[in-house]
Amino acid sequence: MTGIEIEVDGRGVAVPEGASLLAAVLAAGIELPTLCSDDRLSPAGSCRTCLVRANGHIAAACVTPAVSGVRVETATDDVRQLRRDAVELIASALPSRALADGNPSELAQVCRSMGVGPEAAQATGGRGGDDSHPYVHLDRDLCIACGRCVRMCAEVQGTFALTLVGRGADTVVAPGTGGPWAESDCVACGGCVDTCPTGAITEPGPGRGLTSAHPPTATRTTCGYCGVGCALDVVTRNGEVTAVLPARDGPVNQGHACVKGRFAHGYLTSPERLTRPLLRRDGRLEAIGWDEALGEVARGLRKVIDTGGPDAVAAISSARATNEENYLVQKFMRVVVGTNNVDNCSRLCHSPSAAGLTASFGLSGGTDTFDDVERSDCLLVVGANPVEAHPVVGARLLRRVLHGAKLVVADPRAVGLALHADVHLRPRPGTNVALFHGLAHVLLAEGLADEGFLRERATGLPELAELLDDYPPDRVADLTGVPAADLVAAARLYGRARQPAIVYGLGVTEHLHGTDGVRSLANLAILRGAVGTDRGHGVNPLRGQNNVQGASDMGALPDLLPGYGKVTDPAVRSRAEAVWGAPVPARPGLRIPDMFAAARAGNLRALWVIGEDVCATDPDTNQVARALDTCPLVICNELFLSETARHADIVLPAASWLEKDGTFVNFDRRFQRVRPGVPPPGEARTDFEIVHAVATAMGIDIGCPTPAEALAECGRVAPVFAGLSHDRLERDGAIPWPCPDPGRPGEAKLYKERFATPDGRAHLAVSPYLPPGEQPDDDYPLILVTGRRWAHYNSGSMTRRGGNLTLDPIDFLDLNPDDALRYEVHDGLPLIVESRHGRARLIARVSEQTAPGQVFCSFHFPASGVNRLTSDHADTVTSCPEYKVTAVRVAVP
Ligand SMILES: Nc1nc2c(c(=O)[nH]1)N[C@H]1C(S)=C(S)[C@@H](COP(=O)(O)OP(=O)(O)OC[C@H]3O[C@@H](n4cnc5c(=O)[nH]c(N)nc54)[C@H](O)[C@@H]3O)O[C@H]1N2
Ligand SMILES: Nc1nc2c(c(=O)[nH]1)N[C@H]1C(S)=C(S)[C@@H](COP(=O)(O)OP(=O)(O)OC[C@H]3O[C@@H](n4cnc5c(=O)[nH]c(N)nc54)[C@H](O)[C@@H]3O)O[C@H]1N2
Ligand code: SF4
Ligand code: FES
Ligand SMILES: [Mo]
């Protein structure tokens, strides 16, 4: 091992350059107490708990760098005594409950290990607390001002919400804004709760005092909210979740989490959880038993198949559900029903990424690992708001920027990361393709393209160069509203970086020309030779749902089988047929919007909606509801009586991510295990069990009795997953695909030798800029952009049922101050928002975050009706809705 050799208590040990004496002591297998230190944070060296003697001098091990040849003593009586004195001094300023027997805090444990008992705690307390926040309580009497919470908030989370106030022994943590915690900048990532060594900052309720430092017995699982894929430890008591702790060895989250994964589990015990199947009788949904429900579903499906043919049935599979469940759903549709009518919410989200990245590079996923992206010296973050939508990734990107990486943000809104950007490009919504061409124009014009790479590993340069002649910065400025100088500055940052990386989100995909957007964005990486090489870290979509990558990987798509083989390809079909022992239909099935159109036309006669609230989250929901009401049989697997479930004929109560077994694939293509922490409520069952039971009720054995066997079978259908298994994941943790071989690791960084396109080359795309589908006019003068807010998740069905609702109780429409003036709107005013398709009700919030002429809202409160506003315009290649551009007007009711 290269590094530094030192001696600890007579033992030789080698540590890497830059390591602290503390790290060296631990590497030597020797225990040393610490309090103000946390290996996720920079050292502070303030508590003196870790004193050692180094070459004869007393030093705090956590802040002292190891230098070659140093001799460290940790165990002599005098250094032990010095450490004890330091801890005794800290303890003396605390009330005795800080050290009470059984107190699980790090401080209490350190004191016990040194023989410092509760009697050492001599303060009376009385400094009070702050219990204004649903998830973070402060007890000032227990604060030792170690600053771990402040550093966690600044260094790991990047929110800078906390500070230390007061002097000397009175120093205590406080929100930087001065008022109550609930009104501070805190985004409840739980970092301060997790790092606090004394119990001064805790999660209220049964999880009080639990941290990842000494996690109690827990179930390791993967977060079921967003696609980051945080590893979490679920602590339970008597069959209920007491806390969900971030795993320190989580490959993506590394001991961090966000307000959703860490805290939003209150929905589990909501009295509104569905616990029994429901059947519509005389227009009303009534609770029935499972046998009856399954009989109704089986009879209903059989009747539609017999009278209308298999293609009169369709299913929407859930990107919230596991791989194994998605595999089973698509197998059910293909084998039991005999149709390819199966799709998932990737359609609404990153289907343009799947199509665009496949066309440009060959595979349907991001090109690089996030660990690589994080090493980049220039980040181009486009149409993504990771600070709110992928908080753990947002925090890691921000950390990288604070450590010196350049940052270009392209987003019409002043999103969190934009505040730290070197250049913030604010294109008018829907003008990305022009923007990316403008950047590409500058790369070529200024000689910043990688000619060798273009010659050897790419195609399409002459055609693209000709197109780019039409996109000089001045013209692009007219098309996009981005000043030419900013465009040039951004292109130079990306063009001159050593290893640039592109990260992007729905601001690229959810457009009339979303696939063109993805491909023109990919052009930039190809021009720079920054993909498939060590000269950059590619093009990486921040996939949304916990398992939207997996749902598509498993073939819950109308045109693709597991592993992305085309249903139209006879060789692909026959491989699946050999495994399934049944014919696979050759004709591609219906996409989600086409399912609704077919239902309205009377051609689709049975629709099974599994974990997607289409009446709240699909666009133009008035028309979706009409489709469900026209369709004779609508079956819905749900946790709650969602907007969609209200329109269903049969509702089947489903288990959620904390209640099931399987795997998810996160945004950088890693398979990770999902394990049940608690049983589902009442008679609710997992989607896996439900699909099985329906197949059995229809008289067909669908195979795959367990999730592990389902993934194993998938590997036989799809060679890219052949090396994966539950056993292997159990052993190795996260494994990325492609993973064709059980004896080899998965491929984290793609295309090192060749691209996966038929000719092995990256393909530059040559698509002219075309305007968005919706345009403002005199009647509808504002452009509405819709997207995410930090505390809620999609339809909000889970986050509105628990403490997150307290954090964000109101559905706002953000307007620029200019527009507020023009339309005589002020903060807090109830508004009616109207589009050409419908109307919604929201509360005005005036903010510079939104540009003049644009308004922004979320879609997390179905009751507001935001998706009644959005149109049926959709990406011309993949049918991904144009959620990001709707012409609207506002009125005061
Ligand atoms: N808190 C929270 N987190 C979530 C979710 C949630 O609901 N809540 N949902 C999850 C899901 S399913 C997904 S897919 C991801 C989505 O994560 P993101 O893609 O980050 O989400 P959005 O907020 O929808 O859109 C991103 C940004 O695109 C910008 N944008 C709009 N139009 C344009 C344009 O024309 N050009 C450019 N360059 N930018 C534009 C918007 O201003 C917005 O800031 O988040 C996941 N994480
Ligand atoms: N205006 C606008 N609309 C949008 C978007 C936008 O940016 N703007 N974004 C779109 C995007 S990217 C997406 S991904 C969609 C998301 O839209 P949806 O997929 O509809 O949203 P979710 O709230 O994530 O989950 C859907 C339902 O699944 C249930 N559920 C959760 N877990 C499970 C499970 O394990 N099994 C079953 N059976 N049910 C479960 C939940 O209770 C919820 O009702 O929204 C889209 N809608
Ligand atoms: S960042 Fe995403 S995966 Fe991680 S805890 Fe939050 S919602 Fe879960
Ligand atoms: S742990 Fe080293 S000084 Fe606090
Ligand atoms: Mo999504």
From TrEMBL:
<dbReference type="Pfam" id="PF00384">
    <property type="entry name" value="Molybdopterin"/>
</dbReference>
<feature type="domain" description="4Fe-4S ferredoxin-type">
    <location>
        <begin position="134"/>
        <end position="165"/>
    </location>
</feature>
<dbReference type="InterPro" id="IPR009010">
    <property type="entry name" value="Asp_de-COase-like_dom_sf"/>
</dbReference>
<feature type="domain" description="2Fe-2S ferredoxin-type">
    <location>
        <begin position="2"/>
        <end position="78"/>
    </location>
</feature>
<feature type="domain" description="4Fe-4S ferredoxin-type">
    <location>
        <begin position="178"/>
        <end position="206"/>
    </location>
</feature>
<dbReference type="Pfam" id="PF04879">
    <property type="entry name" value="Molybdop_Fe4S4"/>
</dbReference>
<dbReference type="InterPro" id="IPR006657">
    <property type="entry name" value="MoPterin_dinucl-bd_dom"/>
</dbReference>
<dbReference type="InterPro" id="IPR006655">
    <property type="entry name" value="Mopterin_OxRdtase_prok_CS"/>
</dbReference>
<dbReference type="InterPro" id="IPR006478">
    <property type="entry name" value="Formate_DH_asu"/>
</dbReference>
<dbReference type="GO" id="GO:0008863">
    <property type="term" value="F:formate dehydrogenase (NAD+) activity"/>
</dbReference>
<comment type="similarity">
    <text>In the C-terminal section; belongs to the prokaryotic molybdopterin-containing oxidoreductase family.</text>
</comment>
<dbReference type="InterPro" id="IPR001041">
    <property type="entry name" value="2Fe-2S_ferredoxin-type"/>
</dbReference>
<dbReference type="InterPro" id="IPR000283">
    <property type="entry name" value="NADH_UbQ_OxRdtase_75kDa_su_CS"/>
</dbReference>
<keyword id="KW-0560">Oxidoreductase</keyword>
<keyword id="KW-0677">Repeat</keyword>
<dbReference type="Pfam" id="PF22117">
    <property type="entry name" value="Fer4_Nqo3"/>
</dbReference>
<feature type="domain" description="4Fe-4S Mo/W bis-MGD-type">
    <location>
        <begin position="216"/>
        <end position="272"/>
    </location>
</feature>
<dbReference type="InterPro" id="IPR006963">
    <property type="entry name" value="Mopterin_OxRdtase_4Fe-4S_dom"/>
</dbReference>
<dbReference type="InterPro" id="IPR050123">
    <property type="entry name" value="Prok_molybdopt-oxidoreductase"/>
</dbReference>
<keyword id="KW-0411">Iron-sulfur</keyword>
<dbReference type="InterPro" id="IPR017896">
    <property type="entry name" value="4Fe4S_Fe-S-bd"/>
</dbReference>
<dbReference type="InterPro" id="IPR017900">
    <property type="entry name" value="4Fe4S_Fe_S_CS"/>
</dbReference>
<protein>
    <submittedName>
        <fullName>Formate dehydrogenase subunit alpha</fullName>
        <ecNumber>1.17.1.9</ecNumber>
    </submittedName>
</protein>
<dbReference type="InterPro" id="IPR041924">
    <property type="entry name" value="Formate_Dh-H_N"/>
</dbReference>
<keyword id="KW-0004">4Fe-4S</keyword>
<dbReference type="Pfam" id="PF01568">
    <property type="entry name" value="Molydop_binding"/>
</dbReference>
<dbReference type="Pfam" id="PF13510">
    <property type="entry name" value="Fer2_4"/>
</dbReference>
<dbReference type="InterPro" id="IPR006656">
    <property type="entry name" value="Mopterin_OxRdtase"/>
</dbReference>
<keyword id="KW-0479">Metal-binding</keyword>
<dbReference type="InterPro" id="IPR054351">
    <property type="entry name" value="NADH_UbQ_OxRdtase_ferredoxin"/>
</dbReference>
<dbReference type="InterPro" id="IPR027467">
    <property type="entry name" value="MopterinOxRdtase_cofactor_BS"/>
</dbReference>
<dbReference type="InterPro" id="IPR036010">
    <property type="entry name" value="2Fe-2S_ferredoxin-like_sf"/>
</dbReference>
<keyword id="KW-0408">Iron</keyword>
